[in-house]
Amino acid sequence: MNVDPAELKKFSELAHRWWDPNSEFKPLHDINPIRLEWIERHTRLQGKRVLDVGCGGGLLSEGMATFGAKVTGIDLAEKTLAVAKLHLLESGQAVDYQLISVEAMALQVPASFDVVTCLEMLEHVPNPASVIQACTNLVKPGGQVFFSTLNRNPKAWLFAVLGAEYALKLLPRGTHDYNHFIKPAELATYCRRAGLTVTEVVGLNYNPFTRRCSLTSDTQVNYLLRAQRND
Questions:
Q1: Where are the domains of the chain?
Q2: How far apart are the first and last CA of the chain?
């Protein structure tokens, strides 16, 4: 299975903190609105069947549900999924959470979704190309796939590892492994090999002091990629 047990353990131990906006997941809470706006702008989520790969505690999944999407969220961290399901009782949203790998789901229900999202997940798996291929297989021809991850260069190491984990302590130490960061050109190559056409690559700027974020042309640290499945 395309999973790192240490990564599952790490996020499972923090599962109960997922919906606390001042916890280790504070940056996710801060950037989630702009991620949602970006996805909504390009897809119009109302009535769409959407798959959120690596959904964690459901922050993005629930957000897309508020736009009227029919959302399925999948993850391999059982404790985190339990938190996601529990939060639905508070929010009143409807999300179908499942404990399954994206590769297994691609075999079960190929070409079933209008939109597939996979955000902040690729840098945590041993084989990101496998995830990308499965995402491609799950989206309908002509459908869109959205990825986000971290670039691999000295600036990304300085900001995302040294700055965020050690200096500012925004994230627990060991959250990210720099060797698993992915350059935009590499991600684009994975997409093309999987049968996707890359339509946009945009940077995400996050200021931890003001807790403000914006889309930018600078992709040196955090970036988002949008692609469409070839007909």
A1: 5-229
A2: 29
Is 96 assigned to a binding site? no
Residue 119 assigned to a binding site: yes
Q: Are 64 and 52 in contact, with CB atoms under 8 Å apart?
A: yes
Q: Is 35 annotated as a binding residue?
A: yes
Amino acid at 38: W
Residues 42-61 have pLDDT tens digits of: 999 999 999 999 999 999 99
pLDDT surpasses 90 at 161: no
Look up the CATH number of domain 5-229: 3.40.50.150
Taking the mean position of all CA atoms in its chain, how far away is CA 165?
A: 19
pLDDT tens column, 47-100: 999 999 999 999 999 999 999 999 999 999 999 999 999 999 999 999 999 999
Is 51 among the annotated ligand-binding positions? no
- Give CA torsion, residues 128, 119, 113, 5, to 10 deg: 50
